[in-house]
Write a structure and sequence with these properties.
Elements lengths: L3 H8 L19 E2 L10 E9 L8 E8 L5 E2 L8 E3 L3 E6 L6 E8 L9 E3 L1
Antiparallel strand pairs: 1-7, 2-3, 3-6, 4-5, 5-8, 6-7
């Protein structure tokens, strides 16, 4: 006979019991006239910083962008009212903001999707 605590432990599931949907990362433009052109459709700008990153005395930008796809907001099986936002983030570095800006670096947060989720009600 199993103790009640063991049965409860077996019945409880953590938010990671749901399969995280795959995502397709967008191809960003290599040049654009505005910083907003580096934020693809379906993504939102969550933060930005402007400064001289490479010492050429021309402003550069770092953009934090977050995918905003409702399909990536999953719920744990034990609580359908809770949603965990598994949408990925990207860090986009843009050099030469005042000129025709080349986007030369991006960093994707692929590994964080399985361990770092934001909860929303």
């Amino acid at each position: 006979m199993m103790p009640a605590g063991v049965l409860l432990l077996l019945a409880a599931q953590w938010p990671g019991d749901q399969k995280i949907p795959p995502v397709r990362y967008p191809n960003l433009p290599s040049h654009a006239q505005t910083l907003s052109a580096f934020v693809p459709q379906g993504w939102k700008l969550t933060d930005k910083a402007i400064g001289d990153l490479n010492g050429d005395r021309t402003p550069d930008a770092a953009l934090a962008i977050w995918m905003d796809d409702p399909r990536n907001k999953i719920h744990p099986s034990y609580d359908p009212k809770t949603r965990y936002d598994t949408n990925p983030m990207m860090l986009v570095i843009v050099f030469g903001v005042n000129a025709v800006s080349p986007c030369v670096a991006t960093m994707r947060s692929t590994s964080r999707r399985t361990t770092g989720t934001r909860s929303s009600a």
